[in-house]
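Hi Y.,

Following your request, here is the sequence exactly as I used it, all 456 residues.
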Amino acid sequence: MTLPSVTPPAQLRRVLKLRDLVFYGIVLVQPIAAVPLFGLADSISHGHVVTVILIAMVAMMLTAISYGRLAAIHPSAGSAYSYVTHELNPYLGFLVGWAMLLDYLIIPVINVIYGSLTLSRMFPAIPETVFKLAMTVLITVLNLRGIKATARANTILLGLMVIVISAFIVLALLFLFRQQGLHGIFSFAPFYTPGDTPFPAIATATSLAALTYIGFDGVTTLSEEVENPRRNILLATVYVCLFTGLFSGLQVYLAQRVWPNFHTFTNLETAFVDVSRVVGGNLLFQGMALTLILASFGSGVSGQAGASRLLFGMGRTGALPKGFFGRLQSSRQVPVLNVLAIGVVTALGSLYFNFETAAELLNFGALLAFVGVNVAAVRHFYFTQRTGSHRHLVSDFALPAAGALFCFWIWISLPLLAKSVGAVWLALGVIYAFVMTGSLTASPGKLDFSASVPED
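Below is the corresponding structure, written out as C-alpha cells. Let me know if you'd prefer a different format.
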C-alpha cells in the first residue's frame, strides 16, 4: 500500500542577502529624495536644511530599529498596521491603517504636483494645470491597462539618478573651490548659525524633511525572502536610513553652500534645479529636471497602482463595500473602479493642494504610523512576558521609547493645516468604524495591505 504524497505548503525562498535589501530600500526611498524638499526646508529652517535632514535621520533610525525587530515577528505588508494591531489593539491598528491609507492616496497626488512644477520650469508657456491633468490622465490610463514598473525600469531610473546627482556633487565641489577655495567647501553655517536658528522653525522644517525617508519601511515586506531575517531586516532598515540621511545631507549641504541666500530663490519647490544650473549650466539643469520628472511619473504610476489595490484589498475583506471596491476586471485583473476613483482623487488633490501641504499631509499619516510602531516595540519587547528571555532597558525600552517621542515631536510640529486635514481624516475613520460596527472600540475589519504590494 502506497501512502499518498503530501505537497508541502508553498513557501518563499530565503535567497536575499543584506546587500539586496539595502539596494531595494535605496530604490524605494530614491537617492534624490531630498532634492524636491531643499528650497522649502531651507527657507523654513532659515538656512539650516542640513540640520533638519540629520535630525529627521535620528528619528527614522530609531524607528528603523523597531521596524527591523518587529519584522522578524510579524512579517507582512502594511507592517505598521500589523504591528499595532497585534501588539497594542485592533482598533488602534485600524486607525494607524486608516492613516496609512491617507498616505497611499496622497502619494500619486504629490508626485503629480512635483512633476508638473518641474515641467512648468522647462516649458513656462504652458499652464501648470495642463501638466497636472495630463500627468493624472496618463498615469490612470497606464494603470487601467495593467502596466506596472518593472525591476529593470527601476534600475535604469536609479542609475540615471545616481549619474545626475553625482555630476551635481562633483560640479558643486569644483564651483565652490574655484569661488572660495577650501573655505567655500567646508563651513558650519548650514548646520548652525548663531543668532539665526529659531527652534520652532527647525521643528517645522524637520517635520517636512522627514519626507526624505518615507519608504524605508518597505524593506520589511521582504522578511520571508531574506536570509537571517532577524539580523538582516534590522540592519537593512538602519543602513537605508543612514545612507539616505548622509547622502541627502551632502546634497543639500552643497546646494546651500552654492546658494546660501534662500530669500532669493525664484521658486522654492524647484530651487535645486536652479542651483544645478549655477554649477553645471543648462545641461545639468535639464538633466536634473528630466530626472525629477521621470522619478515623479514612475512614483505616481506605482503609487496609484498601490492605492487602487489597497482599496481592492479592503473591499475584498469587507472593510469597504465589496460591490464597488472588491471588483476586478477579468481580462487584465485590474480594479478598474478603484483606479478611476484614485485618478479623480489625484486630479482634485493636485489642483487643490500645493507641494508643501501635500508633503506635510503625507508625513501626518507616516509619522503617526511610526509612533505606533515604536510603541508596539516597547509593548512587545519590554512589557510582554516572554519565556526564557530577558528584558534590556536600553534596547527593549529606551530606544523604541525615544523613537516614539522623537516621531511624536516631529508630528506635532507639522503645520496647523496638515494637522487639521489629518484630524478630519481620522475623524472620518472613527465615524466609518462606528457605522460598520456600531461601536467606538471594535475594528471594522482586516485591512489587507498585501494587495498594495506589486508582484514581480
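The longest helix spans residues 271-316.

Thanks again,
Q.
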